[in-house]
Design brief:
This protein is mostly helical. The chain has one domain. It contains five helices and no strands.
């Protein structure tokens, strides 16, 4: 089954653009949260060992850069597939890292939540990439 197979090209392009904008928003939100409030981010989603605010702010730069690249890609079709490929590859590696450390989070629900949310992100980005590559 192909998503939006019976939709018009304009409707498919609109859905693709909306998906990329949504992903850009998530990336920018996470990056800003990590940069501005690394302690709060750590307490809520990143309690995997010792807290290091500098490292959390370092990681935020990836989220911010990918969010900006995605925002540009939402408006420039030629950027869509390459940017989605890079972001998708990073999400897959990030999901694998969380799978390997799934039992090390505090509280314990954070490990599975992080892994599942990242894995779902990989699937969404894969679908967006497929649509962008058409």
């Amino acid at each position: 089954m192909q998503p939006f197979a019976s939709s018009s090209p304009a409707a498919r392009a609109s859905a693709l653009e909306a998906g990329i904008w949504s992903l850009a928003g998530v990336q920018l939100f996470l990056g800003l949260w990590q940069a501005a409030l690394p302690g709060r981010f750590y307490d809520v989603l990143a309690h995997f060992g010792a807290r290091n605010d500098h490292f959390l702010r370092d990681v935020s730069t990836y989220f911010l850069a990918s969010g900006i690249a995605l925002a540009i890609a939402a408006r420039r079709p030629s950027w869509r597939a390459p940017v989605l490929a890079v972001v998708g590859f990073q999400y897959a590696l990030h999901a694998l890292n969380h799978l390997l450390d799934i039992g090390k989070a505090d509280p314990s629900w954070v490990g599975p939540f992080d892994f599942v949310s990242l894995a779902l992100g990989v699937l969404l980005i894969g679908w967006l990439y497929r649509e962008a590559s058409r």
